[in-house]
Structures are given as structure tokens and as C-alpha cells.
């Protein structure tokens, strides 16, 4: 971990921290990526007594790729919650298993599930364009050999009958959570795997994140009439349902019987999630310049006040993201009590509700931000989880600092501290590691959330804070609904800033190289002070150097990297800046002179903003009174 600032460092004077984002113009561009497309029509009947369900699925698959497909794959996520599954075995063998998924003695809860407690999802029958098609279950993946190939630009229709059982709540989805929510229904239906220019992404469900194909969902859900449902999509029959969805002041016309059929439609999403409970309170908050917000939470006196106060904060967070990323692309968003922590889904989130108010706002703010980075941009989280979790952590941290406070000078310090801990632990793996293949959960979590957040924060140090926020908005504008890759955020930043950044993407995400610069010495020649800098770590960076003089004046010196082929604007407009010759990264040392004697210098500091993730802060400062 980086050591605390000592007395000598405090003599330096000013520290410059991250500038919070303001309002900037959005840039327009286009991309030539192709995407597959799916249209789902599902009719599902839920038995709330035995937690089993059955349904039909009609899936129209459009092959927009240049390839002929002879095979497709479906995800059957609920099969992970069975003794002996890949998720179970991984849980039994990883050194630091997720506490939500283990017993008090750190044994797998999945391994102990009985037949009535475990989850399953099976295809009972499957047809392609009316003809029976061969298929085989392999754990959480259904392999389907097509009756006829799907040629480029053509469509095919799959019709499936399926059945499932909801597992007890272990991870994300399940029944009867610790807070008493009856049904948290995520990853519950047979879901077509993603196919892109890399090929199929039929990853088994080990416990990590997801990847999906955009499409339109038409879902009919038949369930006990006392249950209130919330989640993805727009309810098509509110006057038949009621439960707070009906138009104010109107009469509900329910059909007779013990069940209701809820009809939802969700355009251009890559997942469909819902939760249900007979004791949900359902509140609605229309936004003047945003979507309609829905809140569904248990009628529990312990949480009622916090969930009422949460609603205005959700609207504030939505406004913040609309301003600083881009317009939310849907007309509805639901915050639903459920799940086992906090998890983002299309048009909704499932979060646990028995929290302190600050924690409740924090988890909502984080999951809501995923609506942009995971559900509108939708990187492949299994391969580039840092782009989703890290970028979400970055923007949601700034949002929390704005809407809840107390305002921090550097709200992202926790992300930096997390990264320092991992980088110095000897347990770090490159961010190119597949999410399922990290040695330990700790390394995955810090790499995805903290190091991913620092990627953006530090990018602001390299290209300038205004250029960073412009990059984020342009990235969203250019790549929403296109599954961007790491090179896309890098190229966007290059276009916005005019600075070459391949070195940054390579070293930060594909290696475990660390940044460590130091002040090797301050000497004097011919009445002029000479500052000697050294690069100790393997990762190169441009440097801002603050010099404080004995008369209390200050100025900065800027040493760009030669491989940047450009330079950022002066981030300290109130100080004079001296742009130095480029530093070629291969040179381990660099020096420059100041046209003043050494006696006039009080102190020198590398990176006064503290936004460069230098793993050793001790050698970043020189003071005249140092021994």
C-alpha cells in the first residue's frame, strides 16, 4: 500500500485532485460492427408452491455475420446450482470462495443441495423451422446441431419447450432470499449465446458475469395473482394486473381465477429479468427529463423510510449519468429488492434492501451505472470485465460524491488504494485473464473494479480531465448497442485527444507492469538547479512535476512521453507550465534544469494530482531540508 503523506510532503503545498465532470458537447461517429439479433417470444407458467416452471420459447435468430452457421448454443444457467456442477467444483477449490455461496465453515452450499432445493433448466423439445433438431446438454450449455445451416443475412426460427426449477438463493438468482424475497428470477430462461467476429461465446456458468445478444423480448408470465412482479420491460396489460401499474384513478379488470398473466415487452435488450413477491410495495416516480422509475420492495417497517428516500436519489443519479455519459436508451427503470447483493440487468437492478441509507444509495448508484456500460455498450464481461465493472465504478463513484457526499477531494482514492494493494501483493494477474481463470477472487475483484476504475482516472491524467469526459461521452455515442472492445475505448480517446495511447492500453491491461518514478537527485551546475528523474517501474508515463520555491511561488514542468506523439493541455491553469522535451521510454533517467539556484527551491514533487498510479510515493518528493 502507498504510505501516508509525511511532514516533508506536506511542505510542498498544493495538491491537485480530479476535476469533477461538467457539461461537454457530445461528438458523433459511426462504427461498422455487425451484430447478431434475436427475437424472443416466451409464455411461462410459474408454480409458486414447488418453485417449478414450464414454458415455450419462440426465438427468431438473424445471422448478420458473414459466416454460415451449422451450430448454435444456449445458456442453461440454473444447471449451475447442482451438486457436482462446474460452479460447485470451482467453489470447492478456489482459495477464497465467495462467502455468499459457502457455509460458515467455507464449504460449498451447492454441494449440499437436495433435489428439491437445487436448480435446473432443461429443453424438453426443440425445433428449427418446424423440424426436430438434435441437441445435447453439457452442464450449463445446450449444444444444438442445426437441421439446416443459417446463411449470412438469413433468419431461422427455433421453437422450444422448456422446464425449470428455481434453486434456493445462493448467487444472484433463487428463491426465498435472506430478506424474504420469494423469487429473484435472473438467468432463468434458455438464452442464446453470443456469436461475433471472435466466434461463439458459449462460456459455462462458473459464477462470473454474462454476455448476450441484443433483441426484442415478448414475455407472458402466469403466476399467483397475489404476487407483484417487477423487472425488465414495459407491462402491456396494466389494467388487467393492477398492483400499482394501472393508470391512476382507473379501475382494474382482472380475470377470474388464482393466477394473473403478466405481459411484458422489452425492445433491444440482451437479457430479461424479473422478481416477484406477494408483499412488495410498488412505487412509481416519473422523471421530467428521463424514464419512469419503479421501486419494488418488501413491506418491512425496518426499510420503508430508506426506500422512500432512495427514490429521489435514483432520479438524481439518472440525471448525472444522462449528463456525463449520454441519454438512457429506455423509458423505464426498476429498482427491485431481491438477489444476494447488487446486480445489474436490462432496465432494472436487483439489490438487497436491508442496508444503511448510504449503502442503499451506493449499491443503487453502481448498478444503475451498469445500464450504460453493460446494457447499452455491453462489453464481453468474461474477457473484459474491467471495462464494465471498472468504468461503472469510476462513474458511480463520481456520482456518489455529487449526490450524497460528503464531497471528497479525490473520490477515487479507494480505487487507487485497492490497486496498490493488489500490485504489491504478488497476486496480480493481467486484466486479459478470463474472468473465470483468476487464481483467487480477490485478484479478480480488484483487477475488475479498482484497476478498471483507475484505467479511466489515470487516462484523465494522461489526456486531461475534460478530454476524458469527452471520451466517455463519445465512446457511448459511437458504440452503444455494438459490444465494444478495449481497442475501441483507446481509439476513441486518441481521436478526442490527438495523443497516441497504444502503450497505455498494452501496459495497463495486458501486463502487470507497475509505474514507479522517482526523483533521483537535485543538484546545481553553474548556478542552475538540475532535477534528475528516474523510471524504476517497467510501465512508462508522462510526468507532471511541481516545483515550489522558497518565496512560496510555484510552477510545473511537463515531460511528455515520446511515444505519445502529443501532449495534454495545462491542467493547472493558474500556474505557469514549462513543456520539456519528450522522454523516450527506454531511457531510465531524465534530467532538466531550472534557471534558478538550488537554494531557491523548497521542494519538488512528481504528479501533484496523485492521479498517476505510482506504486511507491516515497521517492516522488524532494525537499530542501531532506538529510
The number of helical runs is 11
Label the overall shape. elongated
Order of strands, main sheet, comes to 5-4-8-2-1-14-17-16
Q: Give the terminus-to-terminus CA distance.
A: 25 Å
Query: Beta-strand percentage?
Result: 25-35%
* Uncertain stretches of 5 or more adjacent residues: 1-5, 7-31
Mean pLDDT over the residues: 94
Provide the CATH superfamily of the domain at 37-297. tricorn interacting facor f3 domain
Please give the CATH class of the domain at 37-297.
Mainly Beta
CATH topology of the domain at 37-297: Immunoglobulin-like
Q: Gyration radius, to the nearest Å?
A: 27 Å
Biggest sheet record: 8 strands, mixed
CATH-level-2 architecture of the domain at 37-297: Sandwich
Question: What percent of residues adopt helix (DSSP H or I)?
Answer: 10-25%
How many strands in all? 31
Q: By helix and strand content, what is the structural category?
A: alpha+beta
Amino acid at each position: 500500500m502507498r504510505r501516508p503523506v509525511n511532514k516533508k510532503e506536506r511542505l510542498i503545498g498544493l495538491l491537485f485532485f480530479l476535476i469533477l465532470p461538467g457539461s461537454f458537447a457530445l461528438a458523433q461517429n459511426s462504427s461498422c460492427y455487425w451484430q447478431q439479433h434475436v427475437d424472443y417470444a416466451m409464455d411461462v407458467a410459474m408454480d409458486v408452491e414447488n418453485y417449478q416452471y414450464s414454458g415455450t420459447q419462440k426465438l427468431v435468430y438473424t445471422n448478420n455475420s458473414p459466416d454460415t452457421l451449422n451450430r448454435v448454443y444456449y445458456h442453461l444457467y440454473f444447471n449451475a446450482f447442482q451438486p457436482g456442477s462446474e460452479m460447485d467444483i470451482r467453489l470447492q477449490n478456489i482459495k477464497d470462495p465467495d462467502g455468499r455461496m459457502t457455509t460458515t465453515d467455507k464449504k460449498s452450499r451447492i454441494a449440499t443441495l437436495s433435489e428439491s432445493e437445487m436448480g435446473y433448466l432443461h429443453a424438453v423439445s426443440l425445433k428449427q423451422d418446424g423440424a426436430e433438431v438434435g441437441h445435447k446438454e453439457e452442464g450449463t450449455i445446450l449444444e444444438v446441431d442445426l437441421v439446416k445451416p443459417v446463411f449470412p443475412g438469413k433468419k431461422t426460427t427455433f421453437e422450444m419447450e422448456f422446464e425449470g426449477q428455481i434453486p434456493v438463493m445462493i448467487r444472484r438468482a433463487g428463491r426465498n432470499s435472506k430478506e424474504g424475497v420469494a423469487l429473484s428470477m435472473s438467468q432463468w430462461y434458455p438464452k442464446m449465446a453470443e456469436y461475433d467476429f471472435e466466434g461463439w461465446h458459449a462460456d459455462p456458468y462458473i459464477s462470473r458475469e454474462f454476455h448476450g445478444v441484443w433483441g426484442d423480448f415478448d414475455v407472458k408470465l402466469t403466476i399467483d395473482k397475489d404476487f407483484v412482479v417487477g423487472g425488465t420491460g414495459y407491462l402491456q396489460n396494466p389494467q388487467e394486473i393492477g398492483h400499482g401499474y394501472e393508470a391512476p384513478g382507473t379501475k382494474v379488470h382482472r380475470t377470474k381465477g388464482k393466477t394473473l398473466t403478466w405481459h411484458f415487452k422489452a425492445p433491444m435488450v440482451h437479457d430479461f429479468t424479473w422478481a416477484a413477491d406477494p408483499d412488495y410495495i410498488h412505487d412509481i416516480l416519473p422523471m421530467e427529463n428521463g424514464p419512469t422509475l419503479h421501486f419494488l420492495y418488501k413491506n418491512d417497517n425496518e426499510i420503508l423510510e430508506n426506500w422512500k428516500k432512495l427514490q429521489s436519489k435514483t432520479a438524481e443519479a439518472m440525471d448525472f449519468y444522462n449528463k456525463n455519459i449520454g441519454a438512457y436508451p429506455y423509458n423505464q427503470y426498476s429498482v427491485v429488492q431481491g438477489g444476494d447483493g447488487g446486480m445489474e440487468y436490462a432496465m432494472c437492478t436487483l439489490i438487497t434492501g436491508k442496508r444503511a441509507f448510504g449503502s442503499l444509495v451506493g449499491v443503487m448508484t453502481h448498478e444503475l451505472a451498469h445500464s450504460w456500460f453493460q446494457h447499452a455498450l455491453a462489453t464481453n464481461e468474461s474477457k473484459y470485465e474491467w471495462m464494465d465493472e471498472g468504468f461503472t465504478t469510476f462513474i458511480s463513484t463520481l456520482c456518489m460524491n455529487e449526490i450524497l457526499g460528503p464531497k471528497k477531494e479525490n473520490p477515487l482514492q479507494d480505487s487507487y488504494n485497492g490497486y496498490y494493494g493488489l500490485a504489491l501483493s504478488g497476486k496480480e494477474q493481467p486484466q486479459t485473464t478470463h474472468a473465470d481463470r483468476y487464481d483467487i477472487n480477490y485478484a479478480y475483484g480488484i483487477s475488475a473494479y479498482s484497476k478498471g476504475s483507475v484505467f479511466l482516472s489515470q487516462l484523465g491524467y494522461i489526456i486531461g480531465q475534460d478530454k476524458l469526459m469527452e471520451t466517455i461521452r463519445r465512446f457511448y455515442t459511437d458504440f452503444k448497442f455494438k459490444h465494444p472492445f478495449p481497442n475501441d475505448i483507446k481509439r476513441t480517446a486518441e481521436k478526442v485527444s490527438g495523443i497516441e495511447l497504444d502503450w497505455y492500453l498494452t501496459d495497463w491491461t495486458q501486463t502487470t507492469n507497475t509505474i514507479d518514478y522517482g526523483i533521483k537527485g537535485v543538484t546545481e551546475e553553474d548556478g542552475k538547479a538540475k532535477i534528475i528523474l528516474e523510471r524504476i517501474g517497467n510501465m512508462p508515463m508522462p510526468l507532471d512535476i511541481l516545483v515550489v520555491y522558497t518565496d512560496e511561488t510555484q510552477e510545473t514542468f511537463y515531460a511528455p512521453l515520446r511515444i505519445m506523439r502529443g501532449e495534454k493541455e495545462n491542467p493547472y491553469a493558474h500556474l505557469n507550465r514549462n513543456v520539456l522535451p519528450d522522454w523516450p521510454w527506454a531511457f531510465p533517467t531524465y534530467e532538466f534544469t531550472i534557471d534558478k539556484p538550488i537554494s531557491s527551491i523548497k521542494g519538488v514533487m512528481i504528479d501533484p494530482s496523485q492521479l498517476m498510479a505510482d506504486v511507491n510515493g516515497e521517492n516522488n518528493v524532494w525537499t530542501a531540508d531532506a538529510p
